[in-house]
Amino acid sequence: MPEVASKLSPTSMPRRAGVGLKAEHYTTILETSPDIGFFEVHAENYMGAGGPPHRYLSAIRERYPLSLHGVGLSIGADRPLDSDHLARLRQLVERYSPELFSEHLAWSSHEAGFLNDLLPLPYTNETLARVVEHVDQVQEALGRRMLLENPSTYLAFAENTWGETDFIAEIARRTGCCLLLDVNNVHVACTNQDWDPIAYLDAYPLSHVQEIHLAGFAPDADEEGRPLLIDAHDRPVDETVWGLFAHTIERIGPVPTLIEWDANVPDWPVLKAEAERAERLMADIDGGRRRTPALNHAH
Amino acid sequence: MIGATGIPVFSLEGSEQASVMHGFAARQADFARAILDPVRPAPAGLVGPDGRPSERRFAVYRNNVVVGLIETLKAAYPVARRLVGEEFFAAMASLHVVAEPPVSPIMLDYGAGFPAFIARFEPAAVLAYLPDVARLERAWVEAYHAAEASPLSPSALGQVPPGDVLTMRLTLHPTVRIVRSAFPIVSIWQANVGGDDAGTVALDAGGEDALVARPETEVEIRRLPAGAAAFMEALRAGAPIVEAMKEGLFASPCFDLAIALRGMIEANVIVGYDVRPARSEGAA
Known about the structure:
The structure holds two protein chains of two kinds.
Chain A: H1 5-8, E1 17-20, H2 26-32, E2 39-42, H3 52-63, E3 66-69, H4 83-96, E4 100-104, E5 107-110, E6 113-119, H5 125-142, E7 147-149, E8 156-157, H6 164-175, E9 178-182, H7 183-193, H8 197-203, E10 209-215, E11 218-221, E12 227-230, H9 239-252, E13 257-260, H10 268-291
Parallel strand pairs in A: 1-2, 1-13, 2-3, 3-4, 4-7, 7-9, 9-10, 10-13
Antiparallel strand pairs in A: 5-6, 11-12
Chain B: H1 23-36, E1 46-47, H2 55-76, H3 78-84, H4 86-99, H5 114-120, H6 130-145, H7 154-158, E2 169-172, E3 177-179, H8 185-193, E4 209-213, E5 220-224, H9 228-236, H10 241-251, H11 257-266, E6 270-274
Antiparallel strand pairs in B: 2-6, 3-4, 4-5
């Protein structure tokens, strides 16, 4: 068993690989019942009153474990959480009983409305207190622990007084929330911020991690010609990210791991092959860990 | 404001907002304004790894928001997109998303204001039918996500005593949307939704009213016979059949009650009926 991940709150989510559920794949999944660890959906895509999305999700949920992933709660905003949105999330959680619920360390709501992106926040005592307050509120409203996801960022706030991993660790410590470690976001943020990704992972509160995300990024450059990676979810997982994933699994053992592929969505076999690779990698590393338990202490 | 921590709050150099707002809230307000205004510079104090500001990095966020919303509109309005072409559509959509950014985190609700925007958008005025086609596409999206209900079977309706038919009230399926137009919008929609060869539509062939509904899994779009749109709108507002019939006839002297009802039964858009006498509205 992984060292600590299961101590926080036992989850029935299998320590396997899953994929983000896309409308393009609904019928293939129902017709072929592929062997896949779980599916994850964006909560906001299932906030219509009815319709095919709910019909398909209900049928798929009957056969598979489910992770509900919010993208619109704006936990990192200064303004109070939208109580209507929180109520809608509670309804979805009650309706589908997902094994996991996660949201982002980011914001998107502002005075005039909603910006459909995961925007960054400064890491200060002020923002820390606000995020902690919001995470507490979510966990109370949903009656369960949530997972908080680390962001992909393109720039930093000059006023930061906390490092990102310490900031996240402190949120987890104060709220008891679990974490969703997005390894692609680690690579994207570390490249864009000129941080060392291994140092990032080693400083990350891995004992709180209950799920991992893997995805593809789009390479670009800033005006100085420095690499600028964009969290595009539009292609296969990069080899560097697979390497960081392996590093993480060596530390904590198999974790529910999601392949996110949200744009230029490929045919089902391509997506499934990515999940199979993640699962093989976890099995290989776990086998090694079991044979040589001392490896756990090598780091 | 929380967080009286003694940590110095970032000062908004050169900003007229500095004395009014402070800290986190001011930061986010500034950020949001700059996202939606491409000529506004990136907010101060957002830096790359060398500690210097970077417009290019901020532009990633701006681009994610604007392009994401344009993509949402593209997906919701495929026929309008085909009618005006990719480039024109993207330009029109980009003006709309900045003028009317989302007010809700539920993106499937986004774009409700787009048909009205198109109607006011002068460069599109030559395509007089475009706003109505867009309203039809919006109705499709709404029907797709609207609440479920079970249509009544024709036999269930057949049990209504003939003497009660005219005073009966009908409950329409919650997915029902009605779009009335002076243009042949259903024909235009059908000719363009497939993706391959658009057939030709005679624009002077007269207007078409559309019934949009999703009685089961698929959204269906049908042409309504003359006066049926007014009839169904009256029914939906709670009028008994006899009153709704007057609305139908008022809209078109060709309105035919039997044809309208048969069409509704075939379209599976009736989910309930009530044969009790009129509720106490206006009873003195």
